[in-house]
Amino acid sequence: PAALVWLRRDLRCDDHSALYHALRRFPRVYCAFVFDTDILDALPTRCDRRVEFIHASVVELHQHLQQLARESGSPGGGLIVRHGPAVPCIVQLARELGVQEVLANRDYEPAAMARDCQAAQALHAAGIAFSDYKDQVLLEKNEVLTRQGQPFSVFTPYKRAWLEKLDAFQRTPYPVQRYARHLAALPDEAPLPTLQALGFMPTNLRTLALPTGMSGARQLLQDFLPRLPAYHEARDFPGRKGVSYLSVHLRFGTVSIRQLAALAARQAATGCQGAQTWLSELAWRDFYFMILWHHPQVITQAFRPEYGHVQWDEAPALWQAWCEARTGYPLVDAAMRQLLQTGYMHNRLRMVVASFLTKDLGIDWRRGERFFARHLNDYDLAANNGGWQWAASTGCDAQPYFRIFNPVTQSQKFDPEGRFIRRYLPELAHVPDKHLHFPAAMKPAELAACGLRLGVDYPQPIVDHAQARTRTLLRFQR
Ligand code: FAD
């Protein structure tokens, strides 16, 4: 008997749920990844950091699987890689290999669930079983419910219940290596496709501090662990190295969420505040996956239906300025440049720019959500939708609509010396700290002293925050 493990957003071979179950139950196990043309063809560009990240991580995973097999004395190992529409590719491969079952880790996005449903049906029609496993999250679906048996829609009580449920068992890694001798020898396969063979061009990924694959995740984690105790204090300052930068690895599963939770929970139990706060962030991640699974309509609709009636503005010029980092509010512009140049944006800044788009510019959160979807390396439908609806005040447990971030005071508070702003807006390098957060307030002599020509070197503010705030209050009250 043989099985095929179909990897998708779980590009690792340690603590891997589906792989562990396959190896434990079957004496011959193949692993495959499909570069899914249904997804790739829909991308607006042939130059996408995420495709390059996945490609590099797949190449590395192939080597890790070979090594895992070697170490366990198996002649097999390695990853079968295909390029085409995922479902037909997997069905055909399962037939070619003569497997009895295809195993995969569960996905919670509606499109992915529909794909898996289709795959299960097609496989069953060919006499092949399909099974899926929890791996991507710590606690899924209905595992955390209110006392009345309902899904939570407020984070704090959810987190309390989540922490109670998150016992040692839920954090225990799957010991893949115990059965790694069952990794099967690959059939005669063509070498792994290059990025170019997939129809994609290299991006600037190699120049970023973003190591790929399982080794990249390990490197970032090692770098973060000494900083974990200070996470709660440092996490809000984009100019400091306070966060883990692991989101893209969690997105593509090059690191196991159980491993991270186990590390955090161990330290949190000793009273480490940084670890407690970080564990809460992992809870937010599960929370939004849970929300998306229970309420898939949030993809296009406000979580709170009464906010579905908010009338947003078209504002093409304002939208363009936001997208192109030309708003005249330095923290917003620096954040948008970080996104465009690196595909990452600090959490505090995601909140600031999302608030700015929806509350200062009056533009529909869905447009911002789609823009992030195109540009974020770590783009995740559940977290991104949750974050946008939070900032727009339309979501579950969202920021109340009358709490409107002031982009200038946010800047003064979270980038006081302008370290972050200066990194991404070199044109403001010589502006004194006290004016850096809002250069438009400078007097002509002050502008001349630092050689800044407003409207030439750096834009005038595209809106007046105080007026925008009033308009937003009216918009929401209506
Ligand atoms: P750390 O601070 O080190 O946190 C560790 C991990 O916890 C993160 O990697 C992430 O998996 C999880 N996490 C942290 N904060 C949140 C949160 N608020 N919601 C859900 N999970 C969280 N996160 C994404 O992974 N993908 C997205 O597409 C995404 N879009 C967002 C859009 C908006 C408007 C907002 C406000 C937030 C969004 N987030 C998203 C959440 C958060 O900003 C990122 O997870 C975080 O900045 C990633 O950096 P990090 O790995 O260094 O985080």
TrEMBL record:
PROSITE patterns for this protein: DNA_PHOTOLYASES_1_1, DNA_PHOTOLYASES_1_2, PHR_CRY_ALPHA_BETA
Entry superkingdom: Bacteria
Species assigned in the record: Comamonas nitrativorans
Annotated SUPFAM superfamilies: Cryptochrome/photolyase FAD-binding domain, Cryptochrome/photolyase, N-terminal domain
Cofactor requirements of the protein: (6R)-5,10-methylene-5,6,7,8-tetrahydrofolate; FAD
Chain ranges of the Photolyase/cryptochrome alpha/beta domain: 1-138
Stated name of the protein: Cryptochrome/photolyase family protein
Protein EC: 4.1.99.3
GO terms assigned for molecular function: deoxyribodipyrimidine photo-lyase activity
Keyword annotations from UniProtKB, A to Z: Chromophore, FAD, Flavoprotein, Lyase
Record-linked Pfam families: DNA_photolyase, FAD_binding_7
Coiled coil: none
Family per similarity comment: Belongs to the DNA photolyase family.
EC category name: lyase
